[in-house]
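Can't paste images in this forum, so I'm doing it all in text. The chain is below; anyone willing to post the predicted structure tokens underneath?
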Amino acid sequence: MNEEVQLVYEMSREKMDKALEHLETELSRIRAGKANIHILDGIMVDYYGAMTPLNQVSNISTPDAKTIAIQPWEKKMIDPIEKAIQQANIGINPINNGELIRLIIPPLTEERRGELVKQVKNEGENARVSIRNSRREANEEYKQMQKSGLAEDDAKRAEENIQELTNEYSEKIEKIVEAKEEDIMTI
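Text version of the structure:
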């Protein structure tokens, strides 16, 4: 395989890796009825006028399967943290005892589980679309290379390699989505 073809292949693999990472990040934010500190990822707190990630102004832990404890490093940060959690609209009301904030994860109803599974499938489909877009871009590059002198056999072989890569990543997405669905549906 010539260098240009290999470069396009590697770039496609990188894009597909990023799609997979994004999927895993998005799925980690979907709560499955158990305490998971990742549902707090992306929550920003007003820390002396600067918006700062929650995990940089407090210690976050899961003392048991249904509770998340948030211990601010400074006592006066309790109120801004509580406010930030409420504004994030994660579906859980914070309980403030003056020293730490507790989030009690409510059990999921069957209806809510169904909604979460739909959300998981939607995220999986978004990742598949991203992977197919990477494949399409690579195939277009190969067609351009073919017009610029790449042998037809080499172009076909490159397209087959990209298709194999696409299939490999599609299977990975399917496994990740199935695992998350099972996690959500397990009571």
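Residues 59 and 132 are 40 Å apart (CA to CA). Residues 110-147 form the longest helix (38 residues).
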